[in-house]
C-alpha cells in the first residue's frame, strides 16, 4: 500500500494537518472534517506573539535624503516577475517587494507634499519567476495594483500570442492604465483580421498609446511621455514592431512635439542606456523642440545600472533588473532651465538598493517601519498567491552548493557548468542516446538561464527563476561528421565571449569532438531549443555547404525525416517519452535532475528546523483536537518530507495538477495544463508504483 499523493487536491498545509491527525490515505477516498483541525488556544497565542512585529510609528523627517527637483522620477525596469521579494531567501540584502515599493512611494508623497513624484515601469514583466506564467493571469492583476504613472512595453511581453491577447482584452491590462500604457512603435493585429484585405493590409491598432501627458499638480508641470521598444524582430505573430527610425517619421510624432505645450519630455525606451537608437530618438526630438527642452530617457533591457549625460540638457538612466534597483532622478521644468542657463546640478540621480533598512535610513531618515496599509495589503496578496501556486514548496533540501550564473562555464561553481556537464547529460542526452553509437550534442544560447541556484534548499520558484522559458527541444542536425559539427561551432561563434560576465555565446553539452578532428567515422546528432532554431539551422546549412554537402541521407525517425535528411529542411521536435509524447522543454531537465540527483540521503533530516522549535510544537498541537494521541514526531516529519517532495513535483506546472490511478495500480500526478494547447491527453508528471515489499519507486 502506498500513500495517495496529495490526499486529493488540498494544499500542503492541509496535507500536514491530515498527517498529524492520523490521516491514512489509501485507495479509498478520505473524508475529513477540516473544521476540527485547529491549533490549541495556547499554541495560537505563542505563534501570534512570535510573529508580532515590534514597530515604532513612522514620522516624516525634516527633509528627504534625495536631491529633489521640479520633476521627481522613480523607475523600475525588467522586473521579470521578481515582485514578491524573492531575492530575500538567498540574498537578504535585497528584501524589498512591490508592496514595499508602494509604501516608499506613498511616504515620499506624504513627506514632501509640495513636490511632484512620478513612478514608472519600463517594460519586461514576463519570464522570470513562477508568478510570470503564460498568460499573465496571476502577475498582471498584481501589477495593476501599482500606482504607476506610466508603463512601457518590453520585448518579453511580445514572445507569446497568449500574453498579448490577454493584455489586450476589453477592460484588461492595457485598458487598466487609461492611456498610460505606452507603445510608440508597437501594433496589435486585431483577432480574426490577420488575413490581408484586397489592398494587402491587415487591421492593426496601437498596442498602447503612442504618448501621454503627465501632470504635476504642485509645480503645475506638463510632461510629454513616450514609450519606445528597440527594433525587436522576434515578436509573436499578433504584433508588429515598427523600426524606431520609421516611427520618428510618423505624422503623430511630429504633431505632438510641435503642436503641444509641455515642460519636459520623458522617453521610456526599452533599450540600453546608450543604444544608438537613444541618440537617434534624441536627435529627432531636438530637431523639433530645440536645444533648451529638458529630456530624460528611462532605459532598460540590458539589465545593468547606468547613467549617461547625452547632451547638456538630456540624460539617460537605466535601473538594473529583477527589482535589484529603484532608479531615482530629478530634472527641471523648461522655464526653470531657462532661468538657470545650463546648470548640471538641476539634473540629479540616485541608484537605490532594494533594501528596506537602507531605504528607511538613507531616503526616509528613519529607523521605523515605513510600510503603509496599501503596501502591506499588496505584500500579503503576493505571499498568498505564491503559496496557492506552490511556488515555495520544497523540491530538495540537499543542493550541494551554490551555482552562479555569472561564472565561467569551466568553473565548477558555474550554473552553466552544472547545466552542460550534469543536468543535460543526465536528462536529455541520456534520453535521446541511440544504440547506433551516434553521439548526441546539445547547444543553447547563454541567455537562456536567468538566475543563480542556491544551496541547500531549492523550492519550485528557484527552478523557474533559473529556467523560466517554455522552450521545447528540437533536433537540428543528424549524423553530422566531426568536421561538420565543428564548422557549425565556428559559424555560430559558439566559444566566443557573449559580452555578459564570463559567459560564452553558447553552452554545449555532450562529448564534443576535437576541433581539428577529420574523423568521418564518428557521427553526431545536434539538438537545440525552439528559440535557437533559426540561428542553429543556419549554422548547420552553412557547415554542410562548407564541407561540400547539402544533404545527409538515412536520417529518419520512424517515417518522418529528420533535418537535414534528403528532401527535408525541417527540424524535428523531440517528445518526452514518459510524458505521453508531450514536447520536451528545458525546464523539464532541471526538475528531473534535481529530483533524482539531489535527493537527501536516506533517513537524514530534511530540514533542521523541522526537528526543533515551533514546527514540532505545531505538529504535536494540531493532532490534539481530534481526540487522538499525537503521532510520533519523527514519523510525522519523515512522512511530511515525502509529501513535500511529491507536492513540489506536482507544482512544476503551477498547480494544474490532479492525481489518477491507472489499471496496473500506478498512481500518476497529471499535468492538465498541456491539454489546453491541443497536444493530447493530460500529461503524467510523476508515477508511483509499489512493489511486493511495500517500497515505492518513481519516475519523472
Automatic annotation (TrEMBL):
One of its GO terms (biological process) is nucleotide catabolic process. One of its GO terms (molecular function) is hydrolase activity. Residues 671-680, 690-700 have a biased composition (Basic and acidic residues). Keywords: Membrane, Signal, Transmembrane, Transmembrane helix. Gene3D superfamilies: 3.60.21.10, 5'-Nucleotidase, C-terminal domain (3.90.780.10). InterPro entries: 5'-Nucleotdase_C_sf, 5_nucleotidase/apyrase, Metallo-depent_PP-like. PANTHER family: 5'-NUCLEOTIDASE-RELATED, ADL392WP. This is 5'-nucleotidase. It comes from Seminavis robusta.
Amino acid at each position: 500500500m502506498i500513500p495517495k499523493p496529495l490526499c486529493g487536491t488540498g494544499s500542503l498545509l492541509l496535507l500536514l494537518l491530515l498527517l498529524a491527525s492520523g490521516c491514512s490515505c489509501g485507495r479509498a477516498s478520505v473524508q475529513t472534517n477540516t473544521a476540527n483541525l485547529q491549533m490549541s488556544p495556547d499554541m495560537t497565542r505563542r505563534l501570534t506573539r512570535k510573529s508580532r512585529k515590534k514597530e515604532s510609528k513612522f514620522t516624516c523627517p525634516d527633509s528627504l535624503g534625495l536631491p529633489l527637483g521640479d520633476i521627481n522620477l522613480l523607475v523600475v525596469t525588467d522586473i521579470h516577475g521578481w515582485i514578491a521579494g524573492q531575492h530575500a531567501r538567498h540574498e537578504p540584502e535585497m528584501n524589498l517587494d512591490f508592496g514595499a515599493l508602494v509604501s516608499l512611494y506613498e511616504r515620499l508623497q506624504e513627506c514632501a507634499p509640495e513636490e511632484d513624484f512620478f513612478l514608472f515601469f519600463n517594460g519586461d514583466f514576463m519570464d522570470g519567476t513562477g508568478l510570470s506564467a503564460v498568460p499573465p493571469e496571476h502577475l498582471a492583476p498584481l501589477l495593476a495594483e501599482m500606482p504607476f504613472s506610466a508603463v512601457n512595453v518590453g520585448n518579453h511581453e511580445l514572445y507569446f500570442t497568449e500574453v498579448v491577447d490577454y493584455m489586450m482584452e476589453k477592460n484588461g491590462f492595457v485598458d487598466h492604465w487609461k492611456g498610460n500604457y505606452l507603445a510608440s512603435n508597437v501594433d496589435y493585429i486585431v483577432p480574426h483580421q490577420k488575413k490581408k484585405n484586397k489592398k494587402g493590409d491587415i487591421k492593426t491598432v496601437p498596442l498602447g498609446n503612442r504618448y501621454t501627458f503627465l501632470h504635476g499638480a504642485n509645480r503645475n508641470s506638463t510632461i510629454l511621455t513616450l514609450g519606445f521598444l528597440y527594433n525587436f524582430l522576434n515578436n509573436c505573430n499578433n504584433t508588429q514592431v515598427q523600426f524606431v527610425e520609421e516611427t520618428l517619421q510618423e505624422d503623430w510624432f511630429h504633431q505632438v512635439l510641435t503642436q503641444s505645450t509641455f515642460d519636459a519630455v520623458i522617453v521610456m525606451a526599452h533599450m540600453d542606456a546608450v543604444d544608438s537608437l537613444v541618440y537617434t530618438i534624441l536627435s529627432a526630438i531636438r530637431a523639433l523642440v530645440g536645444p533648451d527642452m529638458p529630456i530624460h530617457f528611462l532605459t532598460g533591457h540590458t539589465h545593468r545600472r547606468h547613467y549617461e549625460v547625452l547632451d547638456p540638457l538630456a540624460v539617460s538612466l537605466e535601473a538594473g533588473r529583477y527589482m535589484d534597483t529603484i532608479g531615482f532622478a530629478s530634472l527641471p521644468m523648461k522655464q526653470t532651465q531657462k532661468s538657470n542657463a545650463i546648470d548640471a546640478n538641476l539634473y540629479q540621480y540616485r541608484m537605490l538598493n532594494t533594501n528596506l533598512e537602507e531605504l528607511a535610513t538613507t531616503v526616509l531618515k528613519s529607523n521605523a517601519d515605513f510600510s503603509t496599509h496599501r503596501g502591506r495589503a499588496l505584500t500579503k496578496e503576493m505571499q498568498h498567491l505564491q503559496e496557492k501556486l506552490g511556488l515555495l514548496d520544497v523540491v530538495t533540501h540537499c543542493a550541494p552548493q551554490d551555482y552562479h550564473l555569472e561564472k565561467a562555464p569551466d568553473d565548477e561553481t558555474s550554473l552553466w557548468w552544472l547545466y552542460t556537464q550534469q543536468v543535460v547529460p543526465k536528462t536529455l542526452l541520456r534520453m535521446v542516446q541511440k544504440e547506433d553509437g551516434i553521439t548526441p550534442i546539445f547547444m543553447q544560447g547563454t541567455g537562456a538561464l536567468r538566475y543563480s541556484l542556491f544551496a541547500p534548499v531549492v523550492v519550485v520558484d528557484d527552478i523557474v527563476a533559473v529556467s523560466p522559458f517554455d522552450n521545447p527541444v528540437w533536433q537540428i542536425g543528424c549524423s553530422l561528421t566531426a568536421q561538420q559539427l565543428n564548422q557549425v561551432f565556428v559559424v555560430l561563434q559558439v566559444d566566443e565571449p557573449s559580452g555578459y560576465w564570463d559567459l560564452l555565446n553558447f553552452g554545449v553539452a555532450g562529448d564534443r569532438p576535437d576541433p581539428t578532428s577529420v574523423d568521418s567515422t564518428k557521427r553526431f546528432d545536434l539538438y537545440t531549443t525552439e528559440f535557437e532554431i533559426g540561428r542553429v539551422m543556419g549554422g548547420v546549412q552553412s557547415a554542410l555547404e562548407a564541407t561540400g554537402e547539402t544533404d545527409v541521407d538515412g536520417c529518419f525517425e520512424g517515417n518522418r525525416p529528420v533535418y537535414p535528411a534528403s528532401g527535408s529542411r525541417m527540424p524535428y521536435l523531440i517528445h518526452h517519452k514518459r510524458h505521453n509524447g508531450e514536447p520536451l522543454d528545458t525546464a523539464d531537465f532541471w526538475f528531473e535532475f534535481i529530483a533524482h540527483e539531489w535527493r537527501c540521503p536516506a533517513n537524514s533530516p530534511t530540514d533542521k528546523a523541522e526537528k526543533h522549535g515551533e514546527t514540532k510544537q505545531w505538529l504535536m498541537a494540531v493532532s490534539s483536537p481530534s481526540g487522538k494521541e499525537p503521532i510520533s514526531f519523527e514519523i510525522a516529519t519523515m512522512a511530511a518530507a515525502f509529501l513535500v517532495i511529491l507536492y513540489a513535483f506536482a507544482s512544476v506546472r503551477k498547480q494544474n495538477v490532479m492525481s489518477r490511478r491507472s489499471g496496473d495500480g500506478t498512481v500518476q500526478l497529471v499535468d492538465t495544463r498541456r491539454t489546453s494547447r491541443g497536444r493530447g491527453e493530460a500529461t503524467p508528471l510523476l508515477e508511483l508504483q509499489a512493489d511486493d515489499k511495500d517500497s515505492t519507486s518513481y519516475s519523472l
